[in-house]
Please model this.
Amino acid sequence: MGDDDVGDVVVDLGAQEDDAVFQQQIAETEAKLERLRQREKAKDTRCKIVFGALIMTEALKDPAGARKLAHLAETKITRDVDKAAVAAFLEELRRVHGGAQEAKPAA
Model:
């Protein structure tokens, strides 16, 4: 093995080390990006919770608002699991505006 051969091996090892460093930096950057995305999603969810609480509270103070929100819920909430989740509040809204449950279309 000559001196030229040894130099080639060192260069190759250096390139492998650089690649490993770059791969590590990419992984760290992707992890940071994912954490930022999670924070943004949590912020958005918190905003929805606050606005939802505001709307729910105000609708219970106003029969017209209660009627509008009940109608919106009855027409826009379609998944059974979501309907079950809001059923008790929907009944409260109906009591406030004095309305009965909307008739369901015939099957």
Remarks:
- The radius of gyration is 30 Å.
- Helices lie at 3-59, 63-76, 80-97.
